[in-house]
Design a protein that fits this description.
This protein has 140 residues and is α+β, with helices and mostly antiparallel strands. It is built from three helices and eight strands; from the N terminus they run ββαββααββββ. The chain has one domain: YjbQ-like (Jelly Rolls, Sandwich), CATH 2.60.120. 24% of the residues lie in helices and 36% in strands. β5 and β6 form a beta hairpin. The radius of gyration is 16 Å and the shape is elongated. The relative contact order is 0.38. Pfam families: YjbQ (PF01894). This is Secondary thiamine-phosphate synthase enzyme.
Length: 140
């Protein structure tokens, strides 16, 4: 069963689209039917399938999660114990726990069965840049 690791260089918090890389992997391996599993190998970022037509959706999602889980330095987050890796680390773990680190996408007719406006995103929850690894696994 084909597998590939792709690396995404982030520039801080936000959504980074990886749909093209996933679609290329499926095409390259010639699978007509199957399931693509997308898995991120980290605990302070996550994966989403979300609209990829209007960039305002990504902006609003990022803003929502920043409000939902502020940095550890925010007075509302004084209860956080894990702070040794910076004020964005434990909030990043919480955001990752609220979202997903693995997504399954059906392959139909040799293509990802995503809807018209759907894209696959790495959702970076840390402030500073990171190199994130995503494992693509095609089962059929």
């Amino acid at each position: 069963m084909p597998q590939k690791i792709i690396t995404v260089s982030t520039r801080g918090q936000g959504l980074y689209e990886v749909t093209a890389e996933a679609a290329s992997f499926v095409r390259t391996n010639g699978a007509a039917e199957g399931l693509l599993t997308v898995f991120v190998r980290h605990t302070s970022c996550s994966l989403l399938i979300q609209e990829n037509a209007d960039p305002d959706v990504r902006t609003d999602l990022d803003a929502f999660f920043r409000r939902l889980v502020p940095p550890a330095s925010d007075p509302s987050m004084r209860w956080i114990v894990h702070t040794t890796e910076g004020p964005d680390d434990m909030p990043a773990h919480i955001k990752a726990a609220l979202t997903e680190v693995s997504i399954g996408i059906p392959v139909v007719g040799g293509r990802l069965a995503l809807g018209t406006w759907q894209g696959i995103y790495l959702f970076e929850h840390r402030d500073r840049p990171h190199r994130r690894e995503i494992v693509l696994h095609l089962g059929g």
